[in-house]
Specification:
The chain has about 525 residues and is an alpha+beta fold. It is built from 16 helices and 14 strands. A hairpin with a 4-residue loop joins β2 and β3. The N and C termini lie far apart (about 90 Å).
């Protein structure tokens, strides 16, 4: 039976309040406070464990990034083939090991044969050897080096393995990456390995990352990755603390040949476990607060909802925000009123959202070229005006005017339908090969496009333009009537400038257009920068 009268609710609540005071002393501490405190303690301990595990993860990933940068590099790739000692002598000097904080670097060919190795004792920086890596065993080949099978599974892209392993009873931090060219073309050419003995320096670094002093030991793989909950306190069934008030957990080695067990002293408990005095204080306080609770109840169910309704309606009118709702679950008269207001707001918001949606679509359509699906000349005009108005002084900007070479002849030869497809392909290729966050490309008209590059000086703009010329040529779109080649090409005019208070962009555009004219005069299929 639901009670909908406010007066009846007040009377019934007062009767229940008397009964509640009788049982509160017994139930409050045993069923609410202590279980919550112990649960929060366990949650805090769990976060500390996660911080330690994250420290191990971040340390290994840090090595992985450095290793990847050196492995996916044209110089490394070619060294495997030509074994030019100048590469290793210039790149892997002793200072390299010191700055990276590693013991050794090994390079293996595709058959996992060591073609170059060098390792140092970090204590005194004397040379050392480590047979498990110098002449890789079956275990190292299987669990650390990168096999061709792994690369195939990764769609012929670089594969990295990072983490901790146990070799010759020594804990090792390693990072191994398949050797590729920087542009990721071609096949893998071997594996580059960075490694470091786990010593006090590594432990100290991990402790600093986690913000916790802990110790470690290496255990055999037969120990399960679990935490023994040895406490017998009925409140802390999920506690991570042992009888010795220590906390430990296990991190399996990535090579599955053992695990790292870390242990640390549990933080001091921040609450008293003796509940007698606390319960007495709580019960006495509740007796004194009984009358106050009655007022709070009246305020909560009557005054507070009315005040909230006033604030909500005021906010709706002031901010013109029709998404605000009462979302009331009340069954009394106030609940009915709030629900009716919500229904009214639903209709208003629905109409408002439809109007906004239509406006957004119209705005997008008005600034998008229907053929190429990239921004149009109007969008370019808006972008340039905004760029000149809000960009900081001294910002490097470049405008590239792009023209498809002999496109009229292309249309005459292949037809306008094919010409439209070619313009679409060129537009999308330009878009995909620019930085979406900083660069802008639009169809200016006909077969002409315009590109805006921010944070780009004259030299960089020339490099970008040359790259675009080559990329379009690489599309190999046939153009039998071209006067310079048998494929579709583009010419680009470049004007680089610095934001210095300009208010009009057309003079800047015209300079880039003049450079385009020079590119055409010099034979097309090229990019020319203004002097």
């Amino acid at each position: 039976m639901f009670i909908n009268s406010l007066k009846t609710k007040l009377i019934i609540f007062y009767l229940f309040l008397i009964i509640f005071v009788i049982f509160i002393k017994v139930g409050d501490l045993n069923l609410i406070q202590l279980p919550q405190l112990y649960a929060l303690e366990a949650l805090s301990d769990e976060k500390d464990i996660s911080r330690i595990k994250m420290a191990f993860t971040s340390k290994s990933r840090e090595y992985g990034v450095i290793n990847y940068d050196n492995a996916v590099w044209d110089d490394t790739y070619h060294y495997v083939d030509n074994k030019n000692s100048q590469f290793t002598e210039s790149n892997f000097v002793l200072d390299t090991y010191k700055s990276l904080g590693i013991n050794g670097i090994h390079i293996y060919d595709k058959q996992t044969v060591t073609i170059w190795q060098q390792a140092w004792n970090i204590t005194d920086w004397s040379p050392l050897t480590f047979p498990p890596f110098d002449q890789p065993s079956t275990f190292v080949k299987k669990h650390i080096l990168i096999s061709e099978e792994l690369i195939i599974k990764n769609n012929n892209k670089p594969v990295s393995r990072v983490g901790f392993t146990l070799l010759d009873d020594k804990l090792i931090l390693f990072a191994a990456t398949s050797i590729f060219k920087a542009n990721l073309t071609g096949n893998a050419n071997g594996t580059m390995l960075f490694w470091r003995f786990f010593d006090e320096q590594v432990l100290t670094d991990l402790q600093q990352r986690a913000g916790i002093k802990f110790t470690i030991e290496v255990i055999q793989p037969n120990l399960k990755n679990t935490v023994k909950l040895t406490s017998k306190n009925s409140f802390i069934k999920n506690s991570y603390r042992t009888k010795k008030d220590e906390i430990f957990d296990i991190i399996p080695l990535i090579t599955n040949n053992g695990a790292i067990k870390f242990t640390y002293q549990a933080p001091i408990r921040q609450f008293a476990t003796s509940w007698l005095n606390h319960a007495t204080i709580v019960s006495s306080t509740l007796l004194l607060l009984t009358l106050g609770v009655l007022f709070i109840f009246f305020h909560y169910f009557i005054i507070r909802p009315i005040l909230q309704a006033d604030n909500l309606v005021t906010a709706i009118i002031k901010d013109n925000d029709h998404s605000i709702r009462f979302a009331s679950k009340r069954k009394d008269e106030l609940g009915t009123l709030f629900n009716l207001i919500d229904r009214l707001l639903d209709g208003v918001e629905s109409n408002e959202q439809q109007l906004i949606s239509h406006n957004v679509r119209l705005q997008h359509i008005s600034q998008t070229d229907s053929l190429t699906k990239i921004p149009n000349r109007r969008a370019f005009d808006t972008t340039m005006k905004k760029l000149l108005q809000v960009s900081p002084l001294g910002l490097d900007v470049a405008i590239l005017v792009v023209d498809v070479d002999y496109f009229k002849k292309y249309n005459d030869c292949y037809g306008h339908a094919q010409g439209d497809k070619t313009l679409y392909a060129i537009a999308q290729t330009l878009r995909k090969n620019l930085h979406e966050d900083t660069d802008f490309v639009a169809r200016y008209g006909g077969e002409e496009f315009v590109v805006v590059l921010k944070n780009t000086d004259k030299k960089s703009a020339q490099a970008v333009a040359n790259n675009l010329v080559n990329i379009i040529a690489d599309l190999k779109i046939s153009h039998q009537d071209s006067d310079i080649t048998d494929i579709v090409t583009i010419s680009i005019g470049i004007h680089a400038f610095v934001i210095s208070g300009q208010t009009q962009y057309m003079p800047l555009f015209e300079l880039a257009d003049q450079a385009l004219y020079q590119a055409k005069e010099q034979g097309r299929n090229r990019a020319i920068t203004t002097d």
